[in-house]
Amino acid sequence: MKPALASRKPDPAPVPASAHKIAAIDITQHRLVFDTPFHASWDTKPRLHWDATIVRITTDQGLVGYGSGDLMMGFAGHEHLFIGQDPMAIERHYRVLSHINFHYGRCWPFDLALWDLAGKITGQPCWKLLGGLSDRVRAYASSGTLRDPGAMAAVAESYIAQGFPAMKIRFHRGNWRDDVKALEAVRARVGDRLELMVDCNQGWRLPWDTEAPWTLKDALTVARELERLGVYWMEEPLHRADRAGMKALRDATDVRVAGGEMTRELHEFRDLIDGGCLDVLQPDVALVGGITGLRRVAVMAQEHNLIFTPHTWTNGMGVTANAHLVAGMADAPFLEFPYDPPEWGLDRRDYMMAEPLTVDAGGWIVLGNQPGLGYAPNEDLLARTRIG
């Protein structure tokens, strides 16, 4: 006689709950219209506005956690899965969000709002709850536009004057040789005063952009030029699915290979690591897994002696959330700081915040000891920019 199948494990003993319950979830959409367009290197269309979605989670005791960075598509109709729950049951909430992510869309700003709330409930900044390794992280200036060589060199000088230790240059001028000319101009101007990264923007495309990505031979040719110019990493040099190509490229060049900013599932990072595809892992808490999920990826990176430094091109709230994770546990050499004025200044990136996220004179993002993620919404401007 065959043994009976094991029955489902009994429910675990209840754990003490916090004194708070989730009482309300409010999600609002906002749009800041630009007086002059932003010509993002990865977008074939000039950007005429910047949308932000703000998540507010309110407890029955009146505390509010805030999150932002993605549009929360697919969350509507799932509020009942969280209302009445203990906001500190973050792992439970992460599992629900991961199921929503599978069936509907990316709703990870909700996780960021939960962490903001957890910090306020416990009276601790999130970087301390996440491990307390440091209260700061060094920023690299992440440019977004495709200037001519002389203008790129001038921008690099301005970053040095503001204390940044590194900058990222975008490639996407139509011919990689033109991209290399801009990089050469920067290196000639700044010497070794800045670490330089290059974003090749080959990993994904916006829906209306049908251009094919580079092949391995294309990427390797560019990598040889980047080696010559002492580039710290080359980001997304191949399509996100070309794992064999990433491994071959990584094996063939001394330049670090970076990627993963839009990788959707955590198991894909496990596979990228096991496959030897990347030197630098770049998932963004606002787009992939939230803080709760990306803690796992940060640990995986540490265990394999890889760099974990998130992509952060969402908004100031998203950048701040990534900074708390990196400062608290990840030991990253730099964190991306989207900043390319006048087209992409703090006034545009952080309009949803009462105070923009800044770096100090040494290029550090200093997070301080305010409970939670340490930011507050700009309620007046959010009221004036609300849509929908």
How would you describe this protein?
There is one protein chain. The chain is an alpha/beta fold and 388 residues long. The chain has twelve helices and 13 strands. It has helices at residues 90-103, 109-122, 126-129, 149-161, 176-190, 216-228, 243-252, 266-274, 290-303, 316-330, 346-349, 379-385, and strands spanning 22-38, 47-59, 64-67, 136-142, 166-170, 195-199, 233-235, 256-259, 280-281, 307-308, 335-338, 364-366, 386-387. The strands form two sheets. Strands 4, 5, 6, 7, 8, 9, 10, 11 and 12 form a nine-stranded mixed beta sheet that branches. The mean pLDDT is 95.
Q: Kindly provide the radius of gyration, computed on alpha-carbon positions and rounded to a whole number of angstroms.
A: 21 Å
Distance between the termini: 63 Å
E-strand count = 13
The rough form would be described as: globular
Beta-strand portion reads 15-25%
Kindly summarize this structure in a few lines.
By secondary structure, this protein is α/β, with parallel strands linked by helices. The chain has helices at 90-103, 109-122, 126-129, 149-161, 176-190, 216-228, 243-252, 266-274, 290-303, 316-330, 346-349, 379-385, and strands at 22-38, 47-59, 64-67, 136-142, 166-170, 195-199, 233-235, 256-259, 280-281, 307-308, 335-338, 364-366, 386-387.
